[in-house]
Amino acid sequence: MKGFAIAAVVMMVVLQAQSQPRFFFTAKQCRDSVSQQLKQQVDRTIALPLHDSTYQRWMGAYWAMELMLYQPSGYEQLIPVQIAMLPKTGPGFQRAFMEMLYTLYLNRYDAELKVILPQLKSDKVKAMVLEYLSASGTTPIVSTDPTFTRSSYYPLYQYQRSKKEQALPSRNDFLHSSFLPGQTVLCSFQSTDRNNPGYLMIRLADGTWMKNEQGEELRFPQLARSISNLPFYLTNGNTPQGLYKITGVDTSDNNWIGPTTNLQMILPFEKNASDFFGTDTSFENYYSLLLGHHLQRFTGLKESYWAGKMGRTEIIAHGTTIDPEYYKHQLYYPNTPSLGCLCSPEIWNENGERIYSAQAQWMGYIVNKRLQPSYLIVAELIDF
Fold first, then answer.
1. Other CB atoms closer than 10 Å to residue 268's CB: what's the count?
2. Residue 211 in contact with residue 369, Cβ under 8 Å?
3. How far apart are the first and last CA of the chain?
4. Rg of the chain's alpha carbons, rounded to an integer?
5. From the CB of residue 20, how many other CB atoms can be counted at a distance below 10 Å?
6. How far apart are alpha carbons 134 and 322 in whole angstroms?
7. Could you tell me the residue ranges of all domains in the chain?
């Protein structure tokens, strides 16, 4: 983001969103109607056979089940049958099925998945099955699968197994003078357990944290957990740690994100490599130089680099119109998870009026202080 022209655009969009705090999709009547329709869609779908002609219906049902954490009555008895059929389906369907299974039915179908694992062709889907099994403490021997061990998914699957032993930064490591010196940086700090909501802080160009008028450091709640809770390198997984380049702001036409101004960002390698790296082609070295010598030692801060190479896209920082009551029994309530974006909580009353927005708060500080951040970084902290 360069120059005050961008700041003026940001201000215009933010003020427009704040002057329209009512959104029909968040009104109780609409929420209740949408939830009822989605559940009916799911219930009708599970009565259908799994066939080429019904794959799209099933994939839509899986998405709705994840969104609402909805486990339809009678579906569990169908799951072993669908797992057995999985190798005969396409990779897109397999991916959607495994995402749903990981989200809603973890630790229940290890035996069935072990049987079909050698029959799967997609390395991404194999990684999803392996992550499912690993979540319950099962670590299959994959060295006998040379196709998978030569794939780009294998080293990231191995990386996930070693994460607990890795060193983590502390919050004040991001004040170090070697990290983007002289720049304002948005820092999204997270727990290693993404069920615990994190928070966003603003590191100013002078190397201090932004404070309010009372001299208190500002923290804005922000969730970096996807609905699936899959690892960062997989589609719709948790928000990867590491650097994101800020490209501007926008208002979404997605009803589940809503009208509050969001921050647009790109991962390394998203779209064109030059969008993140410019003309430099020594990509990994360039990325390390952005981190600076002090932060380079924290391996986790390279996750966004790897995730970008794996093809993850469209990770932004936005508000939410999702009904938090779907998640009232979850640790992250009343936050609402996304498909891997950074999501700041918003509260809408029964009339569809926005009565609280962490998203608008931190965006407002950026506008009012005429800040020009070029990067956002996500990091799991040792002192979270």
1. 24
2. no
3. 29
4. 21
5. 12
6. 30
7. 3-29+167-380, 46-164
Model pLDDT for residues 193-236, shown as the tens digit of each residue: 999 999 999 999 999 999 999 999 999 999 999 999 999 999 99
| Amino acid making up residue 164 | K
Q: Side chain identity at 95, as an amino acid letter?
A: R
Residue 172 is which amino acid?
Answer: N
CB 124 within 8 A of CB 97: no
Q: How far is CA 235 from CA 128, 188, 307, in A?
A: 10, 20, 9
Q: How crowded is the C-beta side of 306, counted as CA atoms within 13 Å? A: 20
Cα(251)–Cα(51) distance, integer angstroms: 38
Average pLDDT over residues 77-95: 98
Say which amino acid occupies 153: Y
> Residues 225, 66: contact at Cβ < 8 Å?
no
CA distance linking residue 231 with residue 97, whole number of Å: 16
CATH number of 3-29+167-380: 2.40.440.10
The two structure tokens encoding residue 297:
């030692």
Provide the token pair at 380: 């799991």
pTM summary value:
0.93
| pLDDT tens, position by position, 231-259 | 999 999 999 999 999 999 999 999 999 99
- 3-state secondary structure labels for all residues of the chain: CCHHHHHHHHHHHHHHHHCCCECHHHCHHHHHHHHHHHHHHHHHHCCCCCCHHHHHHHHHHHHHHHHHCCCCCCCHHHHHHHHHHHHHCCHHHHHHHHHHHHHHCCCCCHHHHHHHHHHCCCHHHHHHHHHHHHHCCCCCCCCCCHHHHCCCHHHHHHHHHHHHHCCCCCHHHHHCCCCCCCCCEEEEEECCCCCCCEEEEEECCCCCECECCCCCECCEEEECCECCCCCCCCCCCCCCCEEEEEEEEECCCCCCCCCCCEEEEECCCCCCHHHHHCCCCCHHHHHHHHHHHHHCCCHHHHHHHHHHHCCCCCCCEECCCCCHHHHCCCCCCCCCCECCCEECCEEECCCCEEEEEHHHHHHHHHHHCCCCCCEEEEEECCCC
**Contact between 260 and 316 (Cβ < 8 Å):** no
Does residue 10 surpass a pLDDT of 80? no
**Token pair belonging to 61:** 């049902």
